[in-house]
User: What shape does this take?
Amino acid sequence: MRWRIMQYVIPAITLIVGLIGGFFIGVFYLRKQMEKMQSDPQMLQKMAKQMGYNLNGRQMQKAQQMMKNQQFSGGKKGQGGGKRK
Assistant: This one.
């Protein structure tokens, strides 16, 4: 009886731990890629082309500035809008 319970519990726990670990590794990787894009305009241009956009020099500067602002504000810009009492 005990063996049958453990037969399902261990794989479930392993799956949950793997999903949580994978999520945090993915977030870490994505943040590193965004930091690289800020300093490398060619990488940002390549990503824009993959998404179907062709950015000119002015748009590139604006995109880089937006990314820098996002980093320094912690990505929370624009949240919590509305009137406070």
